[in-house]
Design a protein that fits this description.
Spore Coat Polysaccharide Biosynthesis Protein SpsA, Chain A, ten-stranded mixed beta sheet, 12 strands, alpha/beta
Length: 490
């Protein structure tokens, strides 16, 4: 990073600027090195999963060792896709499971569509667990499928709906789903394996595929197709990086920090023990994953947060810049909530790998990244414009940073191609081309949305239809505090 020769700069100022430039460059090297490192770990682990899936010719659905599962499907105004989602879940190839759809006060035809399609009838039921929720208005049982029930309740958000589902569930494992996603027939078979391999497993996450422009019939994915919209293709790259390149690589270190709310197989007793899902955060999945880490680490109990790389869930992603912007603003507000709530876990003496590896990465490379990136760009431009640093040095640095960004995406695409062959050769070529286009506009849009999300959280801007949102005034999570229903009301 040579200083511009045509300007006389105070040596102390020049040295300070050079050191700052080197620190920023080291930050970008660090973030990309972490990702490339997790990709290498993921590559080393993929053969085991592929062999495991093809080794046993006997279908796993006949295994007497499988734990029964309660599938929880929160649904709020999901009339467009709830029937297809439930049908895909009814086709799961698994020995014993129940499906509980929680109608979270929908104002559209969600409940009526379920009643008509699956011939639901009212029946009396008393919840087994006393996790506080909004008022339950009724229970329904399907006359067509004995393992399908519906809970109708007042609106309380997804976390509240999941708590209601936990209250009425019968089985020791709960599969948290989305009401607008599709699930492959072997979803539970793929996700149960870590529980069978290691009894310390408390949750299993899985990869999620993007369903835009794919074809579904009778609850089944019949045609995988890469969307023709570039904004969706860029999100395919993001998902490949997040799941194959990152979470699969963090899993051996017990460092998976988020199990997606669309696809997570949880041990119910742990969810109950930590107090159920929060209802005062924007989303519920990230916070619950960190809370389980925090709680079990603090109590010095051995546990495993596992991950399977198979895409067992397919979901729609935003296909316009406006929709993407709103989604990412909300996502980053939720990251902000979780980082602040669980700040006590960071570098804690009891936190292990999640406290010393996972959370520092999240703080630097995810939560604070928008402002660090913005500062780096502004610093470089101002230094070059004022002649403190040479333009050619800044261009070289920018080219290197963009090249590393492209490399991380290419690694994720190749991981998918080597293991699952999800897309055709032509689609793979398109994705490789997208890794280059993505760094010119799309990443900047996402970074800007993340920066706005963090700023809104700092300012405590109101969120539509949200009465309670975690603020800066909220104290850190207390792993020793009893669940709310342990407090006596009398």
């Amino acid at each position: 990073m040579p200083l511009a020769e045509h300007r006389v700069v105070d040596p102390t100022v020049a040295l300070s600027i050079l050191i700052l430039e080197l620190i920023l460059f080291a930050y970008f090297l660090f973030t990309n090195a972490i990702y490339i490192g997790t990709s290498i770990v993921a590559l080393s682990r993929l053969p085991r999963f592929m062999k495991l899936r093809s080794a046993d010719p006997i279908r796993a659905s006949y295994s007497p060792f499988e734990l029964p599962v309660s599938v929880l499907v929160p649904a709020y105004n999901e009339s467009e896709g709830i029937v297809q989602t439930v049908e895909s879940l009814l086709h799961l190839e698994y020995s014993e499971y129940e499906i509980i759809v929680i109608n979270d006060g929908s104002s559209d035809e969600t409940l009526q569509l379920l009643i008509d399609r699956f011939e639901l009838v009212r029946f009396p039921q008393v919840p087994r667990v006393a996790i506080p929720t909004q008022e339950i208005r009724g229970f329904y049982q399907s006359k067509l499928r004995a393992n399908l029930r519906v809970v109708d309740k007042k609106n309380g958000g997804k976390g509240d709906a999941l708590n209601a589902g936990i209250n009425v569930s019968r089985y020791p494992l709960v599969f948290a789903c989305d009401g607008d996603s599709y699930y492959s027939r072997d979803a539970l078979q793929c996700m149960i394996e870590p529980y069978l391999s290691d009894p310390k497993t408390v949750v299993v996450g899985a990869s999620i595929g993007i369903s835009n422009d794919c074809e579904f019939s009778d609850g089944r994915l019949v045609k995988r197709r890469l969307s023709k919209r570039w904004i969706v293709r860029f999100q395919v790259l993001e998902y490949l990086r997040a799941y194959l390149g990152s979470r699969l690589g963090w899993a051996p270190f017990n460092g998976v920090s988020i199990v997606s709310g669309a696809c997570g197989l949880w041990r119910k007793s742990v969810l109950i023990e930590v107090g159920g899902y929060r209802t005062d955060t924007i989303w519920e999945d990230f916070e619950m994953t960190l809370r389980v880490h925090h709680y079990l680490r603090k109590h010095k109990r051995p546990y495993v947060v596992a991950f399977t790389p198979f895409s067992v869930c397919w979901t729609q992603v935003p296909d316009t810049a406006v929709a993407l912007w709103h989604q990412r603003v909300g996502w980053h507000r939720h990251i902000s909530e979780c980082m602040w709530l669980h700040r006590g876990l960071l570098f804690s003496g009891y936190g292990g790998s999640i406290a010393w590896l996972g959370l520092p990465y999240l703080w630097l490379c995810e939560w604070l990244a928008p402002y660090l990136v913005l500062f780096g760009v502004l610093f470089g431009v101002l230094a070059a414009v004022t002649g403190v640093l040479a333009w050619h040095a800044q261009v070289v640095l920018l080219a290197l940073v963009l090249s590393l960004a492209v490399l991380t995406s290419v690694c994720a695409v190749l991981l998918d191609e080597l293991s699952f062959v999800t897309y055709s050769d032509a689609e793979m070529a398109t994705l490789i081309f997208a890794t280059v286009l993505e760094v010119f506009g799309f990443r900047q849009l996402v970074t800007a949305a993340n920066a706005v999300g963090l700023w809104q959280w700092l300012r405590r801007d109101p969120i539509r239809k949200r009465r309670n949102v975690v603020s800066l005034r909220s104290g850190p999570y207390d792993p020793f505090a009893p669940p709310p229903w342990h407090h006596s009301s009398g």
